[in-house]
Amino acid sequence: MGISKDWIKRSTLVFLTFGSAPLFAQEKDMGVAASIPPIYSLVAGVMEGVSRPDLLIRGNLSPHTYTLRPSDAKRLAHAKLIFWIGPSLETPLEAPLKTLAKNAKIIEISRNPKLIRHPYRMVHSDLSSSHTEYASLDPHLWLDLENARVIVQQVREELAAFDPSHRALYEANRDRMEGALLILHEALKKTLLPVQERTFLVFHDAYQYLEVRYGLKGVRVVGGAHYLSLKPSHRLQLEKDLKAKTIQCAFREPFFERAHFNDLFAQHSVPYGVLDPWGMTLPLGPDLYFVMMRTLVGQLAGCLPRKP
Ligand SMILES: [Zn+2]
Description:
Layout: H1 5-14, E1 32-34, H2 37-47, E2 54-55, H3 70-78, E3 81-84, H4 94-100, E4 105-108, H5 145-162, H6 167-192, E5 199-202, H7 208-214, E6 218-221, H8 232-243, E7 249-252, H9 262-267, E8 272-274, H10 288-303
Parallel strand pairs: 1-2, 1-3, 3-4, 5-6, 5-7, 7-8
Helix pairs in contact: 1-10, 2-5, 2-6, 5-6, 6-10
The chain binds zinc ion (ZN).
């Protein structure tokens, strides 16, 4: 089930030219940091050949709920330019950014007016953010490639202002990233076309940007947006759906502590796959975003029956 190893290998090879070289002696640590792996990857792509960013949220944990460790606090205090989505995504970063990153310029990506935005599809009573203007924004916005392009442009502008001596290199990197994103978009579109009408189930309402971009119509979300809160009623509804054969594949995320309802899926012979919208399991580098999207889409399309 799922994506073939060969497919991953091929799609990874395409982007090997990006490389993920170690920090060379001539590359100075510039104090640039990014919150989550996909944002790290886009920032690293624009910085390639100059320096590498630091990753703020590490480990196999949900960025919505993780707990800051002392080493994370050190990273924050060291940073001079920080990219994050915003309080509705990396909620645990909100307070530390204020207290620890006092000397940094902090770029809250979700405020960029050029981004494509989708409101949440459900009301989330468990979101206790004080930023009411963002409470309705679905912050998983990097899963739309057009938004990735907008982020690359924003990162280029910020870096050029932060470090004008490498302005030309940042521009060249932006152009290359935009070209690669376009190729990626065509590949994802082709892969998802035969499964647009299929129904799949997820336990985290994170995929709206991907669904809208590629016309996926059949997502079912069980549990909350950010925080998994499964109730007995979920199991009952799920049993009904499985009996009616409306679900063709179910997906969990890598850091879920267990596979929810796996007994039910097994009983009804529904394949159970893994989707990683955070790139948590991938090697850090400029090509992480590309590998993450190809793997995510490959897992989806590989699990679902194709149009005859
Ligand atoms: Zn989420």
